[in-house]
Amino acid sequence: MSRAVVVSRALRLAGLSATLLVPALPAASQETAPGLAEPATPAEQASSAAGTPFVESLPRDIAGVPGTWDLSRDGSTRRCVLTLSGASGPAGRRLSFPAGCRRALPILNGVAGWLFADGNLRLVDKDVRPVLQFAARVDARSLVAAAGEEHFSLVPLQIVAMVPPTDAVPTSPGAGSAAPDARSAAPAQPEPAGDAPAPGIYALDRYREQDVCRIALTPGTAPAPVRILDSCRDGGLTVFDPVSWRFANGHLTLNARRGHAVNLIAAGDGRWRRDPEVGTTFVLRRVEGAAP
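Above: the chain's sequence. Below: its structure in token form.
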């Protein structure tokens, strides 16, 4: 065998040995990765997937509870708007709701007040015994309670906990005693308003049923009149009893006779859905223009 062939084979064997002896290196990301990050909450994961920031709306303490809430029975169109007051009453804190709610949701016949304990909201009877004990859903946007085989959803509409922190009164020493410096204050950025809803006839669509009721948004200066048309088959809307509407900062607001309110945002193609989109489906769909 020639010397050149022997040298060539030796070089090939040396290269193969070097390849087999060198241990596999870990991925660069594994070498330099810091400690594992805290896992995102289900609500944050859902919000990230949707591409929108998660805005917390549920109260963390009793101070954030007062305001209006939407109570509905899951799997039905029965609903009621409750007003939870911060004032003390004979059975915990006071609450109120339209008289028609007792017919729409019979479980309210036994409710006399509300409590907030251990981070949970409870509707209680006259003896302060729990009628509905609510807990936060995984999405952190609504509450749920069970009563026998039925389940009820409680969705905040306009409560103290939803007031932006910027609206709070300053508490630092001297805050509020001096006028803000116009040179250093950042100019206010107006919120995008979007297109206002066109006045006309709107059909109410629920989860399993469509056109269960029709309302007329009358043109005029805000708050403009709202009228429920004949043959309305939705007990929740008739109990809510909207009497006026207005549009501001991208939100269509329906105001009830007793002062409650429901906020909706544009969903495209003349549709407006409740915001936040939790609980029983509430979508208004424009079907006719306003009368000349």
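The first helix runs from residue 3 to 21.
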